[in-house]
Write a structure and sequence with these properties.
By secondary structure, this protein is mainly β. The protein has strands spanning about 10-15, 20-25, 35, 40, 40-45, 65, 75-80, 85, 90, 95.
Length: about 100
């Protein structure tokens, strides 16, 4: 099965936990597959409501931006959850903040 084409502004939800994201940047060709908790993410409108996980720390944090290794895909977490975000099976990382210029 071919993964759906990702578009900026698209809202996706995990089928494994309560994680929800918005695509901020997507590749021009768009054939990457986003996953969470080992399952592919689905459009948020068609996602079943997942029960919140009991206890434990969230693997995805609300308000954080996540990127793939070459930073061609960027998502913003809008609802935290216990699953780990991945792109084509490779875990995504939190995007580092850019340092502000010195104001000397």
């Amino acid at each position: 099965m071919t993964p759906p084409t990702l578009r900026a502004g698209e809202q996706l939800a995990s089928t494994a936990c309560t994680t929800r994201v918005v695509v901020v940047r997507a590749p021009a060709g768009g054939g990457a597959e986003l996953g969470c908790g080992g399952n592919p993410m689905v459009p948020a409108a068609s996602a079943p409501s997942a029960a919140p996980s009991a206890g434990g720390d969230a693997a995805t944090l609300i308000g954080k931006r996540y990127v793939n290794a070459d930073e061609t895909i960027e998502v913003l977490c809008t609802s935290s959850g216990a699953g780990e975000l991945s792109c084509d099976g490779v875990p995504m990382t939190i995007k580092a903040a850019k340092p502000l210029p010195a104001s000397d």
